[in-house]
Amino acid sequence: MSVRTQVLVVGAGPVGLTLAIDLGRRGVQCILVEQKEAPQFLPKMERCNARTMEIYRRMGLARKIRDAGFPRDVPMDVFIVTSLVEPPLVHLPYPSVAQAQAEIAACRDGSMPLEPYQLISQYTLEPLLKSVAESLPTVSVRYRHEFIAFEQDARSVRAKIKAADGMIEIEARYLVGCDGGTSAVRRQLGIQLRGEANLLQLRQALYRCDDLFERIPIGKGRHYHVADDHNSFLIVQDSTKHFTLHSVVDSNDDMKKMFEQVVAMPVQYEMLSCAPWRQNLLLAESYGQGRVFLAGDAVHLVIPTGGLGMNSGVGDAIDLSWKLAATLQGWGGAGLLASYDAERRPIGARNVEASRQASRGRRAWRAAYRPNIRDNTPDGAATRARLACIADVEQRKSNEMIGAELGYRYDRSPIVWPESGDPPADDIMRYVPTTWPGARLPHVWLSDGRALHDLIGEGYTLLRLGRTQADTAPLERAFAGYAAPFTTLAIADERPRAIYGYDLLLLRPDLHVVWRGNRLPDDPTKLAAIATGH
Ligand SMILES: Cc1cc2nc3c(=O)[nH]c(=O)nc-3n(C[C@H](O)[C@H](O)[C@H](O)COP(=O)(O)OP(=O)(O)OC[C@H]3O[C@@H](n4cnc5c(N)ncnc54)[C@H](O)[C@@H]3O)c2cc1C
Q1: Helix, strand, coil proportions of the chain in percent (round to 5)?
Q2: What's the pTM value of the predicted model, to 2 decimals?
Q3: Best CA proximity match to 469, nearest among 447, 492, 453
Q4: 421-447 burial string, b = 16+ CB within 10 Å, else e?
Q5: How many CB atoms lie within 10 A of CB 165?
Q6: Distance between CA 445 and CA 104 in Å, rounded?
Q7: What is the pLDDT of residues 436-489, one digit of tens each?
Q8: For 232-254, what is the mean pLDDT?
């Protein structure tokens, strides 16, 4: 049997699901194949970062995800502890979603995201995204369909898929491998992962314990890192009834003992699952070849300190989605899809490096652990003080990467206008709003309370700010020449003009800046050609 579609997506993890939904929303026909029977109740990621939540807001999913996730009024604090009942060595407070939303509502300088983070367990997010994908008439979601192999030529890709009732062939214009760290699509392309593999092997166990969260005497939060010699950390999952514990131990049985040791109170609990996992810092040599692209863990594997795994993958999906749609709809030039690797691979490298820094930070404070950490002696107190002092600096590297989340830029992209001068400094730990070409448009509230992001549509947008009289008709004509979707949006409010620093900004469908200025460049057709990849 042979089936045809425009895009075949392999793998229904969070990245493949996000890609399929965004393609479907853009009117692209796609088939999503997944080897599993159904989404599994296995823990992995638990935090969508601020940029991912902005993306989900644009896709109309933010509220749904918040409703399914961690309660909005629970703090996101991080603790370093010897157990859940002893005074914490370090307590790093982070706002609940409700508090963060209030801070964002009051922020007027463009320095905060439009949406704060959201804690939602991967096993909650995947079924949610699956049901959204299944509701789209353009998307066909097929579980129990295993990708086996493909061949491609100048016109199409043909993939062999093993379905429950035999082999089928799917012919597509493009194929995207979102099939995770062991990606069969990547292996068939002969693309290697480079970097550091198997840095550490831990076990992760999932527990159900209904009353633990309410009873934690030292305060509510989301992460409890244990100062021990097993690299243990306890993570509260979205229901607050489920917990995961990660630890370097010899057997699954040891994970029960470890849980009881960390909790250190008599509680009723059940250990639901346990499996080993490995820490890697790896990046693919390339993000695709010809008509075949790769996204998510298929091309980057990070240590999940700082949550740059799935969140980086959602960034890949959203960069690729509009470029595939533009190419299939006929207005995207050949340079659009070619820019995917040029834009996203440097971000993959940046995020692998940010994850390396964060995990070094964790290792730094863990190195201060001594077996006397609980002793009621001057030496024990000195160990606690020393570890706390290092951790108070180093642990923040995992939890405060707002620059990595919001500040990534496609500076050197071939589809971004090359502005002369030096780009602003790139800081993983700090976000400084900028409209330097390639940057994400900073979020700004308008005087009527609306977010400027929300007014920007799915095509290119030329923002006319303040009271500019600039003639922008030549640019509109240039985009019309490519039949590319283009809207001019005039915003008279003073604040966006002041924060963005220019009268005119050209934005892409993913809210990244292509160009800025106070009047059009001398050759507006060149700008339109660059932006659309011609
Ligand atoms: C303990 C832990 C905590 C984490 N915490 C965070 C966090 O807080 N934030 C964050 O951003 N990231 C986190 N991550 C990383 C995150 O889980 C991954 O980055 C994310 O799952 C990657 O998504 P993906 O869709 O690319 O790949 P995956 O989730 O691996 O999905 C790939 C899918 O492809 C399917 N597949 C594979 N081969 C085939 C085939 N041949 N045919 C059909 N289907 C196939 C698989 O069954 C799977 O469903 C964490 C990871 C771990 C291990």
Answers
A1: 35, 25, 40
A2: 0.97
A3: 492
A4: eeeeeeebeebebbbbbbbbbbbbbee
A5: 8
A6: 10
A7: 999 999 999 999 999 999 999 999 999 999 999 999 999 999 999 999 999 999
A8: 96
Encoded amino acid at 519, one letter:
R
Protein residue closest via CA to atom 20 of ligand 1: 310
Is the per-residue pLDDT at 1 higher than 80?
A: no
Residue with the nearest Cα to atom 6 of ligand 1?
45
Instruction: Please give the Cα distance from 71 to 104 (Å, whole number).
Output: 18
Atom of ligand 1 nearest to the CA of 183: 38
The contacts of residue 314 (CB under 8 Å, 6+ apart) are 14, 15, 18, 48, 52, 55
- Report residues whose beta carbon is within 6 angstroms of any ligand 1 atom: 10-16, 33-36, 44-47, 122, 146-147, 178-180, 184, 204, 277, 296-297, 304, 307, 309-311, 313
Atom 21, ligand 1: residue with shortest CA distance: 310
Residue 58 in 3-state DSSP?
A: helix
Q: Which residue has the tokens 């961690």?
A: 70
Query: For the chain, how far is it from start to end, CA to CA, in angstroms?
Result: 37
For the CA of 296, the closest atom of ligand 1 is 26
Index of the ligand 1 atom closest to the CA of residue 36: 47
Could you tell which of 31, 33, 122 is best to mutate to test the pocket of ligand 1, judged by most ligand atoms within 8 Å of the CB? 122
The residue to which tokens 């830029």 are assigned: 409
Those residues with Cβ within 8 angstroms of residue 403's Cβ, 6 or more apart along the chain or in another chain: 426, 427, 428, 429, 430, 431, 432
* Number of neighbouring beta carbons within 10 Å of residue 136: 16
Q: How far is CA 412 from CA 283, 347, 425, 428, 527, in A?
A: 19, 11, 14, 18, 15
Contacts for 336 with CB less than 8 Å, ≥ 6 apart: 323, 326, 327, 415, 532, 533
